[in-house]
Amino acid sequence: MDHLTQKEQSKLFVNNMTESAIKIGLLLVLLFWTYDIVRPFVIPVLWGAIIAVALMPVTQKLERMLKGRRGLAATVLTLVGIILLITPVVVVSGSIFEGVTRTLEVLQSGEVKIPGPTQKVADIPIIGDKLFEIWSLVSTNLEKAILHFLPEIRHAASAMAGVIGSSLATLVMFIVSLAIAGGFMAHADACTKAVQTVAVRAVGPNAQAWSTLTAATIRSVLLGVVGVAFIQSMLVGSAMFVFGVPAAGIITFAVLILGIAQLPALIVVLPVIAYVFSTQETISATIFTIWVVLAGLSDNFLKPMLMGRGVDVPMPVILIGAIGGMLTAGIIGLFLGAVILAIWYEIFINWLQSDRREQAALAPEDMPTSSETLD
């Protein structure tokens, strides 16, 4: 009898395991297919959420100005953001197209006159002889030089076309993200409630505080990284325009990108200083140098002032998360990395304090009574 019962239990266990394995397998297949379907929308939705969180204070101010019409406020901000994205692209594209057209006209007319190299070029260590040879060929016989370097030219053109295509795809992605952010901002209360409900159901009551921490961290990173990069680029760019440096707009944009990427602006600034000293008077060049060097180093004191404001997390934690996240996942990692490290910091602090809270809760029970003390 016991043998039959054991056999039936074993058979029932195998049947249950098989059924559970089939259900889990079907669930994994469903999750895999679902992820494949939503994968193209993951990055735009993440960017939309980040933009919505960052612009929510502005939306609320604009909502009060528009007498409580949040949908209109969100729409206005979305349209302004799209215009600010498209306008520089149109201006730069027009400038590039005009430059390429002009270059082609000059090449076709045969009016290209390239000065030959001097002996100083040949005296450059390692690369001097090769550079002198190439430069001489270009200056004396441009057509032969183009034919000689045609494979390299084709490769460079192909790479540039790839960069342009990637930039256009990124632009479209950000336009879609802005539209999604507009929807999030218009229905902010419902979205916040839904996110908090899911978060509390998934990880417990601490999730509500973490959602607030997430929003504050995103705004802190936006202010401390993107905001500082914008201020720094404006300071450097103003010097470029005041002193009439060629391509001042492109240099300003390069400083902005370097600032967001957490790279020193002096990478761009130092060659410009050398150019200014070679083309302008010493006094003007010295004033320019002091201006742009101070602007290039301004992030060293602006970040401690702005990074971490409004967040009960140390600034180094947010900065390490932002830089590490960017190295891992690109620009969006600036925000994701900072949020993840901020949450881990809160978990770690709660874990450290949990033992103290338990001791504080047990202390009154463990304290001896007055009679016990007398005994």
UniProtKB/TrEMBL annotation:
<feature type="transmembrane region" description="Helical">
    <location>
        <begin position="318"/>
        <end position="347"/>
    </location>
</feature>
<keyword id="KW-0812">Transmembrane</keyword>
<keyword id="KW-1133">Transmembrane helix</keyword>
<feature type="transmembrane region" description="Helical">
    <location>
        <begin position="159"/>
        <end position="184"/>
    </location>
</feature>
<keyword id="KW-1003">Cell membrane</keyword>
<feature type="transmembrane region" description="Helical">
    <location>
        <begin position="12"/>
        <end position="35"/>
    </location>
</feature>
<keyword id="KW-0472">Membrane</keyword>
<feature type="transmembrane region" description="Helical">
    <location>
        <begin position="221"/>
        <end position="244"/>
    </location>
</feature>
<dbReference type="InterPro" id="IPR002549">
    <property type="entry name" value="AI-2E-like"/>
</dbReference>
<protein>
    <submittedName>
        <fullName>AI-2E family transporter</fullName>
    </submittedName>
</protein>
<comment type="similarity">
    <text>Belongs to the autoinducer-2 exporter (AI-2E) (TC 2.A.86) family.</text>
</comment>
<dbReference type="Pfam" id="PF01594">
    <property type="entry name" value="AI-2E_transport"/>
</dbReference>
<feature type="transmembrane region" description="Helical">
    <location>
        <begin position="41"/>
        <end position="59"/>
    </location>
</feature>
<feature type="transmembrane region" description="Helical">
    <location>
        <begin position="250"/>
        <end position="275"/>
    </location>
</feature>
<keyword id="KW-0813">Transport</keyword>
<feature type="transmembrane region" description="Helical">
    <location>
        <begin position="71"/>
        <end position="97"/>
    </location>
</feature>
<feature type="transmembrane region" description="Helical">
    <location>
        <begin position="282"/>
        <end position="298"/>
    </location>
</feature>
